[in-house]
Please model this.
Amino acid sequence: MTKAPFDPKQDGALTDFARRMSYADYLQLDKILAAQAPLSKAHDELLFIIQHQTSELWMKLAIHELSAASRAIAEGNLQPAFKMLARVARVMEQLNSAWDVLRTMTPSEYTLFRESLGQSSGLQSYQYRAIEYLAGNKNVAMLAPHEHRQDLHGWLDGIRRKPSIYDEAIALLARRDFAIASAVLERDKALPYERHDSVKAAWAEIYRDPARHWELYELAEKLVDFEDYFRRWRFNHVTTVERVIGFKRGTGGTSGVAYLRRMLEVVLFPELWDVRTEL
Model:
């Protein structure tokens, strides 16, 4: 005898949402699910849009966590910062997995709707730029794609001018009595960071005696973990682009794969990598 289908009301589940907030209401799903507007009839354009939209949502969370972690480090409140940085690393893992889905699209399929993109390009992602500025890759030239939006340009420039999360970590080293050069501490935080021997010496001391400097040792590893995942994200981007369009120029006008490969050379926390050779 076949059992009758289970009725969730028998378990106390609410089913009348005429006057209650529902799951869709809370998440504003009508807005989210109406935000995909393919401009062609190509089957794979929806995949392309959803992959990039979901990536932007994960980036929003990364910005939220990186900003809070930076503030926590500035306050010397490292335990919450560790949790936030661990979460950012997991977010990067989600972003990496998104490339795996996009790579199911072949060059032939992408060609069917590429013209619909016009000159839009990931190069113009203001959230990606915010993550880079928060992490310390402060290339002022990358503000240019946002000059048509003064709100975004001002927001990004504000992030660029503030200390990065690595700046805050180095300032913390100085407050913990490590001999950080004044040239490092007093530099213009709006400019790209340049490696310095005093910072490398401080991290080397920490790595040589982790038990004595455990909090700072853990901070160093959390930062390396974040950059490790961030590098993989950029590498997966390059691989995906080469797989889908080869060495064509990007829709945003860049040299495509060649441009993205140059971005792989960017190091966010140089002394944390250099110190490994010193140990």
Remarks:
- The radius of gyration is 23 Å.
- The chain has a mean pLDDT of 92.
- DSSP finds 13 helices and no strands in the chain.
- The chain has one domain: 44-110+125-278.
